[in-house]
Amino acid sequence: MAAPKKGRSHGAQSRPGRTLAFILIAMVALTGGMFLSGHTTPRLGIDLAGGTSITLKAKSEPGQKNAVNQTNMNTAVSIIERRVNGLGVTESEVQTQGSDNIIVNIPKGTNEAQAREQVGTTAQLYFRPVLTVAAGAPTPEPSASPSGSGKGKATDKATDKATDKATDGSKDKASSTPTASPTSSATSQGRAVTDGLKADSSPSPSASASGKPTPSASPTPDAATAALQKKFTDLDCTDKAARSQVTSGVRPEDTAVACGKNSSGQWEKYVLGPAEVNGKDVDKAQATINQQTGAWVVNMDFTGGGSKKFAKITSKLSQQQPPMNQFAIVLDGDVVSAPSVSSTLSGSAEISGSFDQQSAQDLANVLSYGALPLSFQEQSVTTVTAALGGEQLHAGLIAGAIGLLLVVIYLVVYYRGLSLIALASLMVSAILTYVIMTLLGPAIGFALNLPAVCGAIVAIGITADSFIVFFERIRDEIREGRSLRPSVERAWPRARRTILVSDFVSFLAAAVLFVVTVGKVQGFAFTLGLTTVLDVVVVFLFTKPLMTLLARKKFFANGHPWSGLDPKRLGAKPPLRRTRRAPGSPVGPVDTKEA
Q: How does the average pLDDT of the chain come out, rounded?
């Protein structure tokens, strides 16, 4: 049994070249990917590259008293930070200023327009039944049914019973309706509103998304209907100011007028019933590709209570005629999608429309992290320079270069020839760190700030410590009188355990620091954890195989004085040799005097 073990061990020792080839190929592939991506330098944080500072002023929603308080401000900061900071390594900063202001600092190189949109989006999500829909142009064609209003489809993953198709028949009806003058168009729209309000038997007007009784819009129902008719008729959805005004002050339990774009990109206006489901009923949202259409969609999973509410409203809507068999998904007053329903849905829903990957991920992002408890108005947008950070970076790099130089001098003086292995390993680790940090910029938004630079400098010592552990284990074996090649193989298991334990402690500390801290400290923790993992990779896939190869060279194997492995200099014991004992000779020391 011993022979096969030796054979396997010898075979493992004879293939270090394969391991070295593997890590070199990986380095070339990563470097090639970096150049192909068009990003050849890491993204820098706001302290190193500058950026944009946005000041937001909090304001209460209509009907809310004392909503601008410390609790709501802290909640808003937490939600905005998760939106713009993702994994916590994009180095965007969110903090309160005074009692009603929030400052958001976005690094240069980030998609500032997208970040500003996510910062200011309140993300109030409601599912409302559609009562009436018409074209949103100033002089629309008369239509009592949706003209292709189905921007998306609602899909029930649990029951798989939904047909969720846009009301093509409604489109045909709309296209076949004769053209009317603006006066007759307005009259037709007014009748459509009246008919929709009278026929609205699907959603119960007495219950809203919050579960509270719905108060009437006005003491006189006819007056309220007339006002709603006028608002709907006069609404021009192509006017941004008009869209903002018509949604201002609308409560979830109110019948509302809103705008949205259909699948063709054309504006449409809606009369919507009271909200039956809200964003708090959404458990999570994720941007995915619809396997049937190949288009980007947003899938939502409801909570237990939300699933029951959604099943109840879709059960009612499925019994209605178009357009009242549609429900509108309303985000911050705008209709994102208005799919039709033909059967009861529950558990989950799908929002589809004219999404690309970025817009689908943005919508899923704001839905997943929740709605802001307050509305915010953008007060100012200023540019932040990186002059101070640049000076600190320059000083930090000088300190890092001095530290690296001292490490190199120590290795050369104390380990001599072995220092070549340590320096080559440090170079490989530096290349991998730089390339991976550069690739993480566009991948997860990683940005390099001053604390992250400090983490990379600290990692130099961690990596050098691993080499020292391995080299000292080899020297211990040589001091015991063994030659170099068996010393390398005997030293590796012991050194490996020590290196793994040391790196595990460092990584655990970095992980805890990343979880319990916020802001710039997370950049330090992330970099420290990344370089600790790379230390294990480099030692196992580069340092050990390279040491095995060089142990076969005469310069190291014969213990050259400049190899760092000279047995005499290390105080090695002479090789242990046993002499054969003659048969019958006494065991133990011989008294020479008696002899």
A: 75
Residues in the chain: 595
String of b and e for 403-435 (b: at least 16 CB within 10 Å)?
ebeebeeebbeebbbbbbbbbebbebbbebbbb
Query: For residue 413, what are the contacts with CB-CB under 8 A and spacing of at least 6?
Result: none
Question: Mean pLDDT lowest for which of 68-72, 394-398, 420-424, 580-584?
Answer: 580-584
Strands 327-331 and 334-337: antiparallel
Q: How buried is 282 (Cβ within 10 angstroms: 0-12 exposed, 13-18 middle, 19+ buried)?
A: buried
3-class DSSP state for residue 407? helix
What amino acid is encoded at 253 in this protein?
E
Lowest-confidence region among 128-132, 245-249, 412-416, 532-536:
245-249
DSSP 45-59: -HHHH-EEEEEEEEE
> CB neighbours (10 Å) of residue 80?
24
Assigned token pair, 144: 């009592």
Query: Worst-scoring range by mean pLDDT, 72-81, 285-294, 584-593?
Result: 584-593
Mean pLDDT of all residues in 206-214: 42
- Residue 593 φ/ψ, nearest 5 degrees: -65, -45
Residue 262 DSSP one-character state: -
Give me 25's structure tokens: 């190929």
Pairing of strands 277-278, 375-384: unpaired
Distance CA 330, CA 262 (A): 13
Could you tell me which of 139, 226, 222 has the C-alpha nearest to residue 190?
A: 226
The rounded distance, in Å, linking the Cα atoms of 308 and 302 is 9
Give the span between the Cα atoms of 173 and 168, in whole angstroms.
Answer: 9
Four-residue CA torsion sign, 105, 107, 111, 112: positive
Give pLDDT, residue 150: 42
**Can you read off the two tokens belonging to residue 53?**
């500072």
CA angle 563, 567, 570 (to 5 degrees): 90
Per-residue model confidence (pLDDT) at position 143: 47
Cα distance between residue 543 and residue 549, in whole Å: 10
- Residue 29's pLDDT is 94
C-alpha distances in angstroms, 300 versus 305, 539, 592?
14, 45, 95
Count of CB atoms situated within 10 Å of the CB of 53: 16
Contact 433, 458 (CB under 8 A): no
Cα–Cα distance measured from residue 591 to residue 595, given in angstroms and rounded to the nearest whole number: 7
Q: What is the DSSP letter of 281?
A: G
How far is Cα 562 from Cα 590, in angstroms, rounded to an integer? 43
What are the phi and psi torsion angles at 60 (to 5°)?
-80, 150
For the cut 80, the answer to whether the pLDDT of residue 229 exceeds it is: yes
State CA 176 to chain mean position distance: 48
Alpha helix positions (H), 302-349? 304-317
- In the chain, what is the greatest distance between 2 CA atoms, to the nearest angstrom? 139
Give 414-446 pLDDT, tens digit per residue: 888 898 999 999 999 999 999 999 998 888 878
Partners of residue 348 on adjacent β-strands = 301
